[in-house]
Amino acid sequence: MSATLEADLILTNGRITTLSEATPAASGAAMREGKFLAVGTDADVLQHKGVHTTVIDLGGRRVIPGLTDSHLHVIRGGLNYNMELRWDGVPSLADALRMLTEQARRTPAPQWVRVVGGWTEFQFVERRMPTLDEINAAAPETPVFILHLYDRALLNGAALRAVGYTKDTPDPPGGRIERDRAGNPTGMLIAKPNAMILYATLAKGPKLPFEDQVNSSRHFMRELNRLGVTSVVDAGGGFQNYPDDYAVIEHLAREGQMTLRIAYNLFTQRPGNELDDFKAWSKLVSPGDGNDMYRCNGAGEMLVFSAADFEDFLEPRPDLSPSLEGDLEPVIAFLSANRWPFRLHATYEESISRFLDVFEKVDRDVPFNGLRWFFDHAETVSRRNLDRIAALGGGIAIQHRMAYQGEYFIDRYGAEAARHAPPIRQMLATGIPVGGGTDATRVASYNPWMGLYWLVAGKTVGGTPLYGPGETLSREEALRLYTTGNAWFSGETGKKGSITPGQLADLVVLSDDFFTVPEERIKSLESVLTVLGGKVVHASGSFSGHNPPPLPFSPSWSPPASFGGYHNAAARSALARPATARSRNRGFDAGCDCFVI
Hints:
Elements (H helix, E strand, L loop, with lengths): L8 E4 L2 E3 L7 E2 L1 E5 L2 E6 L1 H5 L7 E4 L4 E4 L1 E6 L1 H7 L12 H14 L6 E4 L15 H7 L5 E5 L3 E4 L1 H7 L11 E5 L5 E7 L4 H7 L7 H17 L2 E6 L12 H9 L5 E6 L7 H9 L11 E6 L24 H14 L4 E5 L2 H17 L7 E5 L5 H9 L3 E5 L2 H12 L1 H4 L5 H7 L3 E4 L10 H10 L17 H7 L2 H4 L19 E4 L8 H4 L4 E6 L2 E5 L19 H5 L34
Parallel strand pairs: 1-6, 2-7, 8-14, 9-10, 14-15, 15-16, 17-18, 18-19, 19-20
Antiparallel strand pairs: 1-4, 2-3, 4-5, 7-21, 10-11, 11-13, 12-13, 21-22, 22-23
Helix pairs in contact: 2-7, 3-4, 7-8, 9-10, 10-11
GO molecular function: hydrolase activity, acting on carbon-nitrogen (but not peptide) bonds
Protein name: Exoenzymes regulatory protein AepA
InterPro entries: Amidohydro_3 (IPR013108), Metal-dep_hydrolase_composite (IPR011059), Metal_Hydrolase (IPR032466), YtcJ-like (IPR033932)
């Protein structure tokens, strides 16, 4: 046998869903030099076994392509993961408060306990959020900051003292400090109409040193690997400036320590100076710069601040500034002229109509001509605007935000409107590229299986039905949005997303069969073997012998060191603290502003 055909890794005895038209199903896959070498029967792939080939028998488990999240704030999330107590998926408020109590005891001064998004009161059996009294009782001395979506934050007394909020502190523009009858802050911060108060307050807390941020980012990538994620399109974020806040991820890329493919977008940071931001960045980096593990993907999701249509479904739809068109047009013209792909946060039909007016005007003068661009979210987009998006060659990246805010949306707009928020079936019928994602880590959980559950079952995290049978997706349709569909959003169509010879060798062996488990069990799926570029980056259970060496947490008091990340009931007994483990969902109210997405 020719040495050039020898595989590095061969998997056999699997039930492989390839998402490839040529070979839809297979039992074996061979990988060499980061790509799939052969896919087919066990006999087909074992022809490529050589002296140095690792062969793994999958024992009949389901295999799917590696999952891609087309909208995750992974770079920013990685810097903070080791500092955050995640309530994502925790089943009861009692459990969540016990976790808070234990973490407060082990967190050294002057550090805070941060619960930063990804949870909802509807996930808890109590069906309610924590009170300020409960938070103060759980942590009387250690500062605690608890974020719900982009709507509000709860601070205990120690946190109020740490940030210096007193009776004399004025409300900042766009936010409100809730006060008691005497005028003293209660600990509730309310984002109205935007979330600057939440993130300005969060930014007052201590940061991790560089070495711990490196460790934190590696752990967050491993957590995503555990859930089957192999690629992410990073959507930038507020307080995530380039290049300063990318030093950690670029260090990991240089050192070959990334276990996740990241294509990143640059998110403007300075209101009124957005065009200057993109002009400056265009001198530092160009879309496509980098490699298959880490590279620039373009601009967004914030392009201009006047186009920030935050999604607080507890509040009326915001009316965007009259200056929007004048602010947005020169930015889009610059991006189009310089062939920068772009993405734009767009929740509401009314906003999308105005954005498209600008895009069409620019296209007449500076043609898009195949430039890759897309809207994020688009919960209430109309069929008319879907046709306009298609005519301009755009796409839509949807996220499972309705799984976390669906109850609020129904209360404001009604159940009938919720049935088409977003109108996924119409999007697909239009033929535009559609991809799936989470918008984690703050407005929803990073767990892709919650997104797949939402697409298939049509329910919120709390079990509220949103969509009828004709509006949900089949399991294969949903999976395609997280694999082959998402490859378009990073400009990698045909390069990844399916288990096909010649494509990047990213795949996931599942803990149970996605195609046959009851709908409710989709939420608890995870990976038992994750392969990235032909190398194992996560392995558990009977495959644990293939797992990469353990990575100690730093700092040692890190919440995920004791509780893990996303709540996993089966793994709870293996955690250092048995009271609880991993988390997921939202909280009390909703709200967001693209100032600090």
